[in-house]
Amino acid sequence: MNIALIAHDSKKALMVDFTTAYQDILAKHQLYATGTTGQKIMDNTQLNVHRFQSGPLGGDQQIGAAVSENDMDLVIFLRDPLAAMPHEPDVNALIRLCDVYNVPLATNIGTAEVLVRGLEAGFMDWRPNYEHGSLNKDIRANLAHGDIDRD
Ligand SMILES: O=C(CO)COP(=O)(O)O
Fold first, then answer.
1. Residue among 33, 48, 66, 54 at smallest CA distance from 147
2. Active-site positions, per UniProt (predicted)?
3. 119 to each of 16, 76, 104, 123, how far by Cα in Å?
4. How far is CA 150 from CA 28, 33, 37, in A?
5. Active-site option among 9, 24, 43, 60
6. Which residue's alpha carbon is at the smallest distance from atom 9 of ligand 1?
7. pTM of the complete model
8. What is the pLDDT of residues 98-126, one digit of tens each?
9. Which architecture characterizes domain 2-141 according to CATH?
10. What 3-state class would DSSP assign to 138?
11. By alpha-carbon position, which residue is closest to atom 6 of ligand 1?
């Protein structure tokens, strides 16, 4: 499965805790993240993550584009409901696209726990094996070869 991991600044430590706790499950999947979130995950775990742009610089939109291409199977987005974001429209657009394409989306840690445990239990098997897009295939090939820039 292709899994997107995104966390606003106040939730980044929580995302690191989450990805550390569920590292064994997440390692079986292809992981994607917005720029800073992905860097923090890679700095603190052994997970390989393909990093898109930072959220305010278009990362949410890139992940939204992947959702619209059926290239994302699960989105975990630990958003901050108490802070105004300059890129609020991008955040809302990503959440909206998950609803458009029926992609399971967690916007808080409680739902994230349920989704990742459900993933491991096989609850994502309803999702057909989509032929992911060609851009995505390149990224997956890089992930498979460990060709990830961890800097
Ligand atoms: O702002 C974000 C999502 O809206 C997250 O972006 P970063 O992971 O680059 O901080």
1. 48
2. 60
3. 19, 12, 10, 5
4. 19, 13, 12
5. 60
6. 54
7. 0.89
8. 999 999 999 999 999 999 999 999 999 88
9. 3-Layer(aba) Sandwich (3.40)
10. helix
11. 55
